[in-house]
Amino acid sequence: MWVVVYVAPNRRVASYLKELLEVEGILVKIKEANLFSKEERNVEVMVSEVEIEEATEVINNALQQA
């Protein structure tokens, strides 16, 4: 089952986190709030529920360094 691990403010941030998680071997999906809008929208970063702890750690580390 996929769970939301982080809600990014835009696609750029979500893509950055997706890349970091994939480097760590974590499967990731991103889901935009509204695919038909050209406005910046929140984007959900989703991972498998069995990888949520590791994903949270990777994201927290990345955001602390930013």
Properties at a glance:
about 70 residues; alpha+beta; Alpha-Beta Plaits; 3-stranded antiparallel sheet; globular
The major sheet is characterized as: 3 strands, antiparallel
Share of β-strand residues: 25-35%
N-to-C SSE string, H for helix and E for strand = EHEEH
| CATH topology name | Alpha-Beta Plaits
Outline: globular
> How many domain modules?
1
Protein name: Putative signal transducing protein
Domain DUF2007: 2-62
Pfam families: DUF2007
Question: What can you tell me about this protein's structure?
Answer:
- This is Putative signal transducing protein.
- It comes from Hydrogenispora ethanolica.
- InterPro entries: DUF2007.
- The structure is a single chain.
- The protein is an alpha+beta fold and 66 residues long.
- It has one domain: Alpha-Beta Plaits, CATH 3.30.70.1530.
- It is 41% helix and 27% strand.
- It is built from 2 helices and 3 strands; from the N terminus they run βαββα.
- It has a 3-stranded antiparallel beta sheet, with helices on one face.
- It is globular and about 30 Å long.
- The termini are far apart.
Helices, strands, pairings?
Elements: E1 2-8, H1 11-23, E2 28-32, E3 43-48, H2 52-65
Antiparallel strand pairs: 1-3, 2-3
In short:
It contains two helices and three strands. It is α+β, with helices and mostly antiparallel strands and 66 residues long.
